[in-house]
Amino acid sequence: NAGVTQTPKFQVLKTGQSMTLQCAQDMNHNSMYWYRQDPGMGLRLIYYSASEGTTDKGEVPNGYNVSRLNKREFSLRLESAAPSQTSVYFCASRDSLLRGQYFGPGTRLTVT
Amino acid sequence: AQKITQTQPGMFVQEKEAVTLDCTYDTSDQSYGLFWYKQPSSGEMIFLIYQGSYDEQNATEGRYSLNFQKARKSANLVISASQLGDSAMYFCAMREGASGGSNYKLTFGKGTLLTVNP
Fold this sequence. Notes:
Helix content of chain A: under 10%
Structural class of chain B: mainly beta
Structural class of chain A: mainly beta
Number of helices of chain B: 0
Order of helices and strands of chain A: EEEEEEEEEEE
Number of helices of chain A: 0
Strand content of chain B: over 45%
Helix content of chain B: under 10%
Number of strands of chain A: 11
Strand content of chain A: over 45%
Number of strands of chain B: 12
Largest sheet of chain A: 7 strands, mixed
Oligomer: heterodimer
Order of helices and strands of chain B: EEEEEEEEEEEE
Shape of chain B: globular
């Protein structure tokens, strides 16, 4: 039982490049989330998926797209990376009966 | 206005002493939930404790307890008998709306960095 996994752990992009951050959970959770964490800002919600087949915008969705591929997987895509997207990205999941969200280890992304 | 306010950017405590980390929140919902997460220097986010708005008793999980004062809209985390391994960033978070709802999102505070001194 790996919990929530994220790939890659680290990534450096040039401005304008695209990439997809992958997230998978093996806990059969319904809801999945993408957050970004910036120094002094706490975590901010980018997108979430309440259940398979649905996605919704969070607090800071601009510049990102998401895909809920199946119940296990929820990916985050940066179509044209910008230096302002330099951040640590966390994926999380939650079952309807659980009170807390469970987080992946994070992806540290640098855009130069 | 901020929904979650953590007024202490940093806190220091001596090993084996208790420490309180402050959290105030702002919501007009009657049903909501409050969470605390720990983030050690390794970076992972660890769920610590949860308090529902209708829970009559303060939540406790081992050495962690949540001092919930609904009228003051505060949800302070109390760590008893601090250990060196408690040194980390601590985040308070809130879910607005019922816990069974599909629209389940968390809003996080900016965090408090706790340092436990030997």
